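Note to self: the last two entries modelled the partners one at a time, which told us nothing about the interface. This time every component goes in together.
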Amino acid sequence: MKPGDPAAVRDLFEAIAPRYDLLNDLLSFGLHRFWKRQAIVWLRPSPGQRLLDLCCGTGDLALLLAERVRPSGAVLGLDGAEAPLAEARRRAAERPWLPLSFHSADALATGLGDGWADGAAMAYGLRNLADPAAGLRELRRLLRPGGRAVVLDFNRPEGSPGLAAASQVAAFQRFYLRQLVVPAARAFGLPEHYAYLEASLRQFPTGPEQEALARQAGFRRVRHRPLAAGLMGLLELVA
Ligand SMILES: C[S@@+](CC[C@H](N)C(=O)[O-])C[C@H]1O[C@@H](n2cnc3c(N)ncnc32)[C@H](O)[C@@H]1O
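The predicted structure of the combined assembly is written out below.
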């Protein structure tokens, strides 16, 4: 499939939703939970805030954020595919005390008002958007002045200046995607879905390119930080 094709991306996430959380844990050895917590450290969520989880999928970040803004705040998780949203709602229903709701929306045009959110997160979403620059513009529009945002995704090590052993990390990343991720996904009947990951990463902006796009989108403070020896990246933003 062609990375960034909205209908194909939606079909892909509809198809993998029932196995998504299990595969995430297996393929990252559980580390995605740690990387998501790193994203939350940057956001500094506090009680009473109104926060967004864009491309929320099955709701990992939204659930964590809702614990931090309760009881008076609110978290809204948005995603373009129904199957992950259904799983997110099922998980939220197990914790009915959380101020949390999930809705269907395109991250490029959410329909929410300017400055709606005190803060926003997007994990493994930006790489899937047809236009990442437009995604960052929408993210900026949604934040109140001074609001924080964080974007967590795979990183392209070869495009990270100052990263030690970038070419070895890139080689390991290719090995990981081709020899571990795709074969493991094959065991679940989803090989081509996970082969898409490497294709989408090839055309994903590097850390410095993401910083430039975020500045163009109007963010006042911008920093891309490699995580996990450069396999992942966190784009930390202030509106
Ligand atoms: C790799 S999953 C990440 C889910 C979750 N954030 C996580 O980290 O576990 C990417 C999600 O982005 C959603 N997505 C892709 N393009 C989107 C768009 N244009 N608008 C809203 N959601 C989108 C997909 O449906 C999918 O659930």
